[in-house]
Automatic annotation (TrEMBL), chain A:
Keywords (A to Z) from UniProt: ATP-binding, Nucleotide-binding, Transport
Keyword Hydrolase assigned: no
Domain named ABC transporter: residues: 21-272
Pfam families attached to this UniProt entry: ABC_tran, oligo_HPY
Annotated organism of origin: Mangrovihabitans endophyticus
InterPro entries (alphabetical): AAA+_ATPase (IPR003593), ABC_transp_ATP-bind (IPR050319), ABC_transporter-like_ATP-bd (IPR003439), ABC_transporter-like_CS (IPR017871), Oligopep_ABC_C (IPR013563), P-loop_NTPase (IPR027417)
Any one biological process term the GO annotation gives: transmembrane transport
Molecular-function GO terms, alphabetical: ATP binding; ATP hydrolysis activity
SMART domains tied to this protein: AAA
Protein name, UniProt field: Dipeptide/oligopeptide/nickel ABC transporter ATP-binding protein
Database matches in PROSITE patterns: ABC_TRANSPORTER_1, ABC_TRANSPORTER_2
UniProtKB/TrEMBL annotation, chain B:
Biological source species: Mangrovihabitans endophyticus
Record keywords, A-Z: ATP-binding, Cell membrane, Membrane, Nucleotide-binding, Transport
Record family assignment: Belongs to the ABC transporter superfamily.
Chief subcellular location: membrane
GO terms assigned for molecular function: ATP binding; ATP hydrolysis activity
Cellular component terms (Gene Ontology): plasma membrane
Domain of life: Bacteria
Domain ABC transporter: start-end pairs: 27-277
UniProt cross-references to InterPro entries, sorted A to Z: AAA+_ATPase (IPR003593), ABC_Ni/Peptide_Import (IPR050388), ABC_transporter-like_ATP-bd (IPR003439), ABC_transporter-like_CS (IPR017871), Oligopep_ABC_C (IPR013563), P-loop_NTPase (IPR027417)
Name of the featured protein: Dipeptide/oligopeptide/nickel ABC transporter ATP-binding protein
A Pfam family: ABC_tran
Length: 348, 362
């Protein structure tokens, strides 16, 4: 980590390991047309509802959960593509949750986003040089005339041929396009990159190449990551800390080895037990098996109390009445469950 | 709400299925070629694929995009348009030759002898008709039964695939179902005529992991009950480890390794299989660095000479006389085990795996 020398958007130097990004009781409710005459009884999708997270400089935080758990909405809130309904997004101590476009400018440069789909996130009519060059100019990162050289340097950094800056996105494979997206994010010299399912659209062998690239960049540039993925193996490989989300809330968070080795929340346990593990065929002992029934309830009308209770085998009356707070169950490991206890049979 | 059982029963079922494996193959594919003439040239999607599958067994076909896994399976169902695809070789299902059948003959074959489950239940169910209508249509296409009898059958099938309240749900439209329920409905539709061969093309890829686990359990259950032959197409090696008896690994249109699951994932023989294993991050144990395969899969318009994998293979220099570039290896047993075959010139690949690859795996 080389962030000891980094300076913030406001010019104040930041210390290694200090919180870079803090989400405080963050919520995003989307209005949807509901029942009633003219749809006047508006309903709200509680996509994210009371999320607290912290990312330190140079750290990687993994965000896992199933469709509709709010992980992508969280990504869009952090990058301020969305304005939250309430709560705070503190970047180096400054709340950016409700800043105007103009006020956001300096922060936009430091918080970059990598998208999932390498096909739809690049303009097909622009050359790679233009795509990466635009990012450089937008953020004022180059002097006149220095643009081409810097673009080529960035392409080389992400493992592409620098001579290919005059080619169009369709001339590249899926893995190469994802590298272009990464080069565009790096053009701004960000302090934090929010990566929303950056490798899920790629084939296994290409996925591993891109993972290694991200890891190298993190090591060499000391960039912090919020890494969102549904693949628990990928998250385990890349992240220092992992947060598990369910229906708009964080249900468990902790250091990687603790969370995978001794998960506390029943949902984390079910999630880990559901991942098909290749190790079984290589003679490893099978892990214990938990099968959840049914589907995730609608975020328009989530269950009272603990939102996981409708699918939880431990649920009691108290779970419907009282929302369990995120409490520390082991050093650094928090879980929101009235009946949390570690389960170690999921680890080999 | 949850049943917590151990995996033991599955292992027992697998052993029972293995016993029946000596039976005559129900599906026999030999020297299958599928080519598509295009403006850019000839796309050689499948090149000389051969495999066989008895009833009661699950074969996983594994490979990356463009490896020919889906194209070859669509040929088994006769789904390629004769105007755009050139197909040669033989596909026998229950002793009957499928290649060259007329569209009419194929219509009575599809659904009855063989059926398919697709990846995306959202786009393979018609949004304008109820789920029940669509299952009834599949049933009545092949049987002269009343609407009432067909509806009873649809309810029975929905119940069998674990849809709660099937009597009410049968009249729902697809958009009223969740993703997992739609995939269950697709499975109900595929199985409504009791086909002996089921082809599942990435049936769980679009689903969340807890729902995927439910669907994998369902397919395993149904196979045990109906004793059908299942071809399971996937790119997920974890899913393979859970569900399959045998694996066929495809690369650039050819099978490059084939054998029982424990063998191919436990002691793989082909450098491409090694590369796949080293690309998947482990869920347990000490996190090991990933060793991805360099480069990208070849274009099917210009498949490399010799072994199609040689431009990306880190072991090609260990084979003398540049044979990897000049001579396409045969799919042969490379060790003492005749049931485990590989398409690679490398001498004693099992030794190379033990010394070079195994220590790098988690």
């Amino acid at each position: 980590m080389t962030t000891a020398t980094a300076t913030s958007a406001s010019g104040v130097p930041i210390k290694d390991g200090a919180p870079l990004l803090e989400l405080d009781d963050l919520a995003m409710h989307f209005k949807v047309r509901g029942d009633g005459l003219l749809g006047r009884k508006n309903k709200r999708v509680q996509a994210v509802d009371g999320v607290d997270l912290t990312v330190r400089a140079g750290e990687t935080l993994g965000l896992v959960g199933e469709s509709g758990c709010g992980k992508s909405t969280t990504a869009r809130l952090i990058t301020r593509l969305l304005e939250p309904t309430h709560g705070e997004i503190r970047y180096q101590g400054h709340d950016i949750a409700h800043l105007s476009e103009r006020q956001l400018r300096p922060y936009r440069r430091e918080i970059q986003l990598i998208f999932q789909d390498p096909y739809s996130s690049l303009n097909p009519r622009h050359t790679v040089g233009t795509i990466v060059g635009t990012a450089l100019r937008t953020h004022g990162m180059v002097s006149r005339g220095g643009e081409t050289a810097r673009v080529q340097e960035l392409l080389e950094m992400v493992g592409l041929n620098p001579e290919h800056d005059n080619r169009y996105p369709h001339e590249f494979s899926g893995g190469q396009r994802q590298r272009i997206g990464i080069a565009r994010a790096l053009a701004a010299r960000p302090k934090i990159i929010v990566a929303d399912e950056p490798v899920s659209a790629l084939d296994v062998s290409i996925q591993a190449q891109v993972m290694n690239l991200l890891e190298e960049l993190r090591r060499e540039l000391g960039i912090a990551f919020v890494f969102i993925a549904h693949d628990l193996g990928v998250v385990r490989h890349f992240c220092d800390r992992v947060a598990v989300m369910y229906l708009g809330r964080v249900v468990e968070q902790g250091p990687r080895d603790e969370l995978y080795g001794a998960p506390q929340h029943p949902y984390t346990q079910a999630l880990l037990s559901a991942v098909p593990d290749i190790a079984v065929a290589r003679g490893m002992p099978p892990k214990s098996r938990i099968r959840l029934e049914g589907d995730v309830p609608s975020p328009v009308d989530p269950p009272s109390g603990c939102r996981f209770r409708t699918r939880c085998w431990k649920a009691q009356d108290v779970c419907a009445q009282k929302t369990p707070p995120l409490e520390e169950k082991a050093p650094g490991q928090v879980a929101a469950c009235h009946f949390a206890e570690p389960m170690t049979s999921l680890a080999a | 709400m949850t049943d917590q059982t151990t995996r033991a029963p599955q292992t027992v079922a697998r052993a029972a299925r293995a016993k029946r494996a000596n039976e005559e193959p129900y599906l026999e594919v030999s020297d299958l070629h599928v080519q598509f003439p295009t403006a850019d040239g000839l796309v050689r999607a499948v090149q000389g694929l051969s495999y066989s599958l008895p009833l009661g067994r699950t074969l996983a076909i594994v490979g990356e995009s463009g490896s020919g896994k889906s194209v070859s399976s669509m040929a088994v169902l006769g789904l390629h348009d004769a105007k755009t695809a050139r197909i040669s070789g033989s596909i026998k299902v229950g002793g009957r030759e499928i290649t060259g059948l007329s569209e009419r003959a194929l219509e009575s074959y599809r659904g009855v002898d063989a059926a398919m489950i697709f990846q995306d239940p959202q786009s393979s169910l018609h949004p304008y008709f109820t789920v029940g209508d669509q299952i009834m249509e599949a049933y009545r296409t092949h049987r002269r039964v009343s609407k009432r009898a067909a509806k009873a059958r649809a309810v029975e099938m929905l119940d069998r695939v674990g849809i709660p309240n099937p009597r009410r749900r049968v009249d729902n439209y697809p958009h009223e179902f969740s993703g997992g329920m739609r995939q269950r409905a697709m499975i109900a539709m595929a199985l409504v005529n009791d086909p002996k061969l089921l082809i599942a093309d990435e049936p769980t890829t679009a689903l969340d992991v807890t729902v995927q686990a439910q669907i994998l359990d369902l397919i395993t259950d149904l196979q045990r009950d109906f004793g059908s032959a299942v071809v399971f197409i996937t790119h997920d090696l974890g899913v393979v480890a859970e569900i399959a008896d045998d694996i066929l690994v495809m690369y650039a249109g050819s099978a490059i390794e084939q054998g029982p699951v424990e063998k191919v994932l436990g002691t793989p023989l082909h450098p491409y299989s090694w590369g796949l294993l080293e690309s998947v991050p482990a869920l347990t144990g000490e996190p090991a660095p990933l060793h991805p395969i360099p480069g990208t899969p070849p274009s099917l318009l210009a498949v490399p000479s010799g072994c199609a994998f040689h431009p990306r293979c880190e072991f090609r220099d260990r084979v003398p006389q540049d044979r990897c570039r000049t001579l396409k290896p045969d799919l042969l047993a490379r060790t003492a085990d005749p049931g485990h075959t590989s398409r690679c010139h490398l001498h004693e690949p099992d030794q190379v795996f033990q010394t070079d690859i195994s220590p790098r795996l988690p």
